[in-house]
Write a structure and sequence with these properties.
The structure holds 2 protein chains of 2 kinds. By secondary structure, chain A is α/β, with parallel strands linked by helices. Chain A folds into 4 domains: 87 residues, Orthogonal Bundle (Fumarate Reductase Iron-sulfur Protein, Chain B, domain 2), CATH 1.10.1060; 58 residues, no CATH class; 125 residues, Rossmann fold, CATH 3.40.50.1860; 126 residues, Rossmann fold, CATH 3.40.50. Chain A has 26 helices and 9 strands. In chain A, helix 24 links the parallel strand 8 and strand 9. In chain A, helix 11 crosses helix 24 and helix 16 packs parallel to helix 20. Chain A is globular, with a radius of gyration of 23 Å. In chain B, the strands form 4 sheets. In chain B, strands 12, 13, 14, 15, 16, 17, 18 and 19 form an 8-stranded antiparallel beta sheet that branches. In chain B, strands 5-6-10-8-9 form a 5-stranded antiparallel beta sheet. A 4-stranded mixed beta sheet of chain B has the order 1-2-4-3. Chain B contains 17 helices and 19 strands. Chain B folds into 4 domains: 94 residues, Uridine Diphospho-n-acetylenolpyruvylglucosamine Reductase, domain 2; 118 residues, Uridine Diphospho-n-acetylenolpyruvylglucosamine Reductase, domain 3 (2-Layer Sandwich), CATH 3.30.465.10; 114 residues, Alpha-Beta Plaits; 97 residues, Alpha-Beta Plaits, CATH 3.30.70. Chain B is an alpha+beta fold. At the A-B interface, helix 3 and helix 4 of A face helix 1, helix 2, helix 9, helix 12 and helix 14 of B. The complex binds flavin-adenine dinucleotide and iron/sulfur cluster (2 copies).
């Protein structure tokens, strides 16, 4: 029994008036080394008020301190104070969805996003994971950030066998974890159409109001090419010259969120090179997870003298597509769409980028469209990048909870702005047995601008076999 | 920890492991440490064991095991307490209610809700609103604090001016006594005969047992609510306006005051857009029947103007009203934006002493160089001075503690109390003798011993020095006066 305390037992008189930590460098023997440990000053900003607890999906599920933002920050503090890195500690950081709901909720302005990123990078470098866990993570990262390999996943699963990955895959159970998602994806497939590469330069229709670059993204590009096409068309219709440089690759978001710092930096450098060369005013992103990472490139590349300033300059140009469209204001005519829409806030849009009003304004600007709000809007759907693959159970519970709230709105169409959310919610809704149409915000705008009937959007998911 | 302590804890842990899934019996040191403090972080003790039961039966069995082995236990809800009430015991068990969060019943017919102790305060209102009701006590922490914690602290909030504290809204509670028995106190009828044991338990800070179910009174949503934000040049003016409003016979649902420093913090945190350059603001909320509210509003408006208000802003829609309240309700935590560390003080004074006490606080602040931001429930004279300091600066913590203590002395001098709503916990137990005589404290101790003869329920809290129930209290020679009078016996 290790009922250990390092403060003297409470003796009935005034307790210890402690300084939090002598927070200079991480204490030797503790969880962290000196290469960017979680920032002590940022940890110090947490006043332990607990306001973040009820908005944290894992706290909502399990009700335990270690699986709350306050508890995770406390574990970081313990690590700095000299508590060693243990499986227990790591498991609670791993269970964090990175949804940043806590950042929105925190009245003290605690930068949990920075803290968890710093912590994860340390964990990846310093913590010894089990062989199975390492293999699963390795595999995911050999597939996800690579648009071409991802496209192979799109077809019948048989496509995988040709990659030679399948034996390794089966051993880790990745396939089982992926398959409900893929099945849901397949049910969306009729609408997806073939992946069609976008031209490198698309000229504004009418008067040119802006010159923008466009990120095609890995998951977005592979699974939702229709979203990219719609983004390009809507930008064009609203007077943007759109550049889609080839060879941009992945933005590095998945790597950042999983502590793979060096890999993330490599991706980020390539994006900086590519879009610098394109000479654009704005860099438009239609996947919330990518946007939030790219807005933070300055910090990711801060230690690289050759890239630090350039990364900052580029990061300042990054905008979600809803921000750009809202800022420009509509010029293209909106045709009526008689459809009721439930808008789901993607965490990386609402919490990480603070973009909530813009997509709602854009949707509400479509004649005939009725916008409905979803209960527990701040709660993550459980997608969170590759979280749903690494932590299938909580992800499924959160997905079902979100699906129930969405279905309860009675809306015909679910709209959200992140490919991960769409995949996650699609499979949860398919499980709920209540089919429903799904679309990205720009697809709805695109349909309205092009005068496509609402039925094309309503064609929903079918319950998966 | 002695070997008997260790054996006791091990026995309770074994019992808990029989009752609960592995994940809910916490023994790992890094995990235990996340429970070492509540909202008052400078008291920290790592508990020997943390258990997170899901049912009253499990909870009662764990407490029974504690009783059997003489192991102390401490209840914890959401851990937002500001007096160290949920501070663990190093040789004891922390019993956390955060997984007991079912709302069992919400009934319109008899206007009540039956909830488990871990249910979050605001969730009761969320559940009752569709029926036209809400749960009136609204601590600023209502989005996170638990009903069990509210009951234990007799928590209040802005709207307690008109609606009263938690005690006025609890009809019944199931309690696991420190022996591990599950008993029901109070009942569906508003007033049960016999001693008001429920009344004794409300506000007892977890020293008389653990509540496992609470029946709450729901309040009808008012027909009309008007919230007005009023800017004044000084706290004097705002205080005078407050007194004038109450003297005029208007009873607003809430009158809250914030001074310039508190406004600055709230503004930094939530951009609540309070009047620029104000030395103080009042947030005044009127509720009730529409015509009554309209009439009262005119009166309030006039009185504020007469007392020097330079801006009065009536919330025009629910979003507007929410923003005004957001500024006020996030003020404590928001102070983290303007100061690395701070102490939230909690004291009560008669409303009429407000200007005088505020001046004295300002003097304390300027003579010591310690900044003090003031947020308070002006209507009922409940002050929440926020004493700011930087723990990285040597001696700053001690200086802040000193100012904070001196503020309590001011409250006592002016006929007030050392806590309005945050409780005594571990933080203020040393101040109890300044408010109460030794006899008073002994009498309270007798009540405690009646519930908890072995002194295992949240020991070391509330009272200045822990005593065993068998001990003859204090420095008295001979029997306690109450004993002598045959009114009580010593266990
Ligand atoms: C930012 C902030 C603002 C606040 N504003 C207010 C305010 O306006 N008004 C106010 O009154 N308080 C306020 N508080 C203090 C705190 O929120 C309240 O005291 C609240 O009631 C504590 O609830 P909790 O669930 O966090 O309890 P905890 O902190 O977990 O516990 C508090 C006490 O209750 C006991 N306890 C917990 N559950 C039970 C149970 N089931 N049975 C018996 N005893 C139990 C514990 O042992 C402890 O003594 C504020 C706190 C913060 C951080
Ligand atoms: S990012 Fe989301 S899951 Fe992680 S601690 Fe914050 S609220 Fe919880
Ligand atoms: S809301 Fe912010 S300050 Fe409060 S506990 Fe959470 S992270 Fe800490």
């Amino acid at each position: 029994m290790d009922g250990h305390t390092d403060t003297p037992a409470y003796d009935g008189h005034l307790g210890e008036t402690g300084s939090i930590v002598d927070l200079g460098l991480p204490a030797p023997g503790g969880a962290f080394d000196e290469h960017h440990p979680p920032d002590a000053a940022l940890i110090g900003d947490c006043v332990h008020c607990g306001f973040c607890l009820p908005t944290c999906p894992t706290y909502v599920l399990w009700g335990e301190e270690m699986d709350s933002p306050r508890g995770r920050i406390y574990l970081m503090k313990e690590g700095l104070e000299g508590e060693p890195l243990s499986d227990a500690m790591v498991s609670h950081w791993d269970a964090c969805l990175g949804c940043m709901s806590c950042v929105t909720a925190c009245p003290s302005g605690v930068q949990y996003d920075t803290l968890i990123e710093q912590t994860r990078a340390q964990v990846e470098r310093r913590h010894h994971r089990s062989a199975a866990d390492r293999a699963l993570r390795g595999l995911i990262f050999s597939i996800f950030p690579h648009p071409r390999r991802l496209r192979l996943l799109r077809g019948p699963l048989r496509g995988l066998q040709r990659t030679g990955l399948d034996r390794a895959l089966r051993r880790t159970g990745l396939l089982e974890r992926l398959s409900p998602q893929l099945a849901a994806m397949e049910s969306l497939a009729p609408r997806l159409g073939r992946p069609m590469p976008l031209p490198e330069h698309i000229r504004a229709s009418g008067e040119r109001r802006a010159v923008v670059g466009m990120l095609t993204g890995c998951v977005q590009g592979a699974f939702f090419p229709g979203v990219n096409a719609a983004t390009a068309r809507v930008l064009q219709a609203e007077g943007c010259d759109v550049f889609v440089p080839p060879g941009q690759g992945c933005c590095g978001a998945l790597s950042v969120h999983n502590g793979r710092e060096a890999e993330a930096q490599r991706y980020a450098r390539r994006i900086v090179d590519t879009f610098e060369a394109a000479g654009v005013e704005r860099l438009v992103v239609n996947a919330a997870g990518c946007g939030s990472t790219m807005k933070d490139y300055a910090r990711l590349l801060a230690d690289d003298p050759a890239y630090a300033d350039r990364a900052r300059t580029l990061a300042e140009k990054v905008r979600d597509v809803a921000e750009v469209l809202d800022e420009l204001g509509p010029v293209a005519v909106r045709h009526p769409l008689e459809v009721s829409v439930a808008y789901h806030d993607a965490c990386h849009l609402a919490h990480a980028q603070g973009v909530r009003a813009q997509p709602r304004r854009l949707l509400a600007g479509i004649p005939g469209l009725e916008l409905r709000e979803i209960a527990e809007p701040e709660l993550c759907c459980g997608s969170a990048g590759i979280y749903n693959i690494l932590n299938p159970e909580p992800a499924r519970e959160l997905g079902d909870r979100k699906a129930a709230n969405i279905v309860a709105t009675g809306a015909e169409l679910l709209v959200t702005a992140n490919p991960g959310c769409l995949m996650q919610v699609a499979s949860a809704i398919a499980r709920s047995g209540r089919p429903m149409g799904m679309a990205h915000t720009v697809e709805v705008l695109d349909a309205s601008i092009r005068g496509v009937p609402a039925d094309s959007l309503r064609e929903g998911t079918r319950p998966s076999a | 920890m002695t070997s008997t302590d260790r054996a006791g804890i091990a026995a309770v842990a074994r019992r808990a492991a029989e009752l609960l899934p592995d994940a809910d019996v916490i023994t790992d040191r890094a995990r235990l440490r996340t429970y070492e403090c509540d909202g008052l972080t400078h008291y920290r003790v790592t508990p020997a064991l943390v258990v997170v039961p899901e049912t009253a039966t499990q909870l009662a069995a764990i407490v029974a095991a504690c009783a059997e082995h003489g192991v102390p236990f401490v209840a914890r809800g959401s851990g937002t307490g500001l007096s160290g009430g949920a501070l663990p015991h190093a040789d004891g068990v922390l019993v956390v209610t955060s997984r007991m969060r079912a709302i069992r019943e919400v009934r319109r017919e008899d206007q009540r809700a039956v909830v488990e102790p871990g249910v979050i305060n605001l969730d009761v209102t969320r559940a009752a609103t569709p029926l036209g009701y809400y749960y009136a006590p609204d601590p600023s922490s209502q989005q996170v604090c638990s009903i069990g914690g509210n009951l234990a602290e007799n928590s209040g909030g802005a709207h307690c001016l008109k609606y009263g504290f938690t005690a006025n809204h609890v009809l019944a509670a199931d309690l696991v006594t420190p022996d591990g028995d599950l008993v029901t106190l109070g009942g569906a009828a508003p007033d049960s005969p016999g001693y008001d044991l429920l009344g004794a338990v409300i506000g007892s800070e977890g020293t008389l047992g653990i509540a496992t179910s609470v029946t709450l009174r729901l309040t009808r949503l008012p027909e009309e609510v008007r919230t007005v934000l009023v800017g004044f040049e000084s706290t004097d003016q705002a205080g005078a306006a407050t007194s004038a409003i109450i003297a005029a016979g208007v009873l607003p649902a809430a009158i809250e005051m914030m001074d310039a420093l508190a406004i600055e913090a709230a503004e930094a945190a939530v951009q609540c857009n309070y009047p620029a350059g104000a030395g103080a603001v009042l947030v005044i909320e009127l509720d009730g029947a529409a015509d009554e509210v309209a009439q009262e509003y005119d009166e309030v408006e006039r009185l504020c103007r007469d007392h020097g208000a330079f801006e009065q802003r009536l919330a025009t829609d629910p979003a507007d009203r929410a923003l005004i309240w957001k500024g006020r309700k996030s003020a404590f935590a928001a102070v983290g934006r303007i100061s690395p560390d701070y102490i939230v003080q909690d004291g009560v004074i008669p409303r009429t002493a407000l200007p005088e006490v505020l001046h004295a606080i300002a003097e304390l602040s300027s003579s010591s160089g310690v900044r003090v931001a003031n947020v308070f429930h002006a209507g009922d004279g409940n002050l929440h001075p926020l004493v700011l300091f930087d723990d990285a600066v040597e001696g700053a913590g001690a200086a802040a503690e000193e100012v904070s203590g001196a503020i309590l002395d001011l409250c006592i001098q002016h006929g007030g109390s050392i806590t309005g709503e945050h409780g005594v916990g571990v933080d203020k137990s040393a101040y109890m003798p300044r408010m109460y005589s030794e006899e008073d404290l002994d009498t309270m101790q007798l009540v405690r011993c009646a519930f908890d003869p072995h002194g295992i329920s949240n020991p070391g809290k509330v009272f200045p020095t822990p005593r065993l129930c068998g001990e003859v209290p204090g420095r008295h020679k001979g029997p306690h006066p109450l004993q002598e009078a045959g009114l009580a016996e010593v266990f």
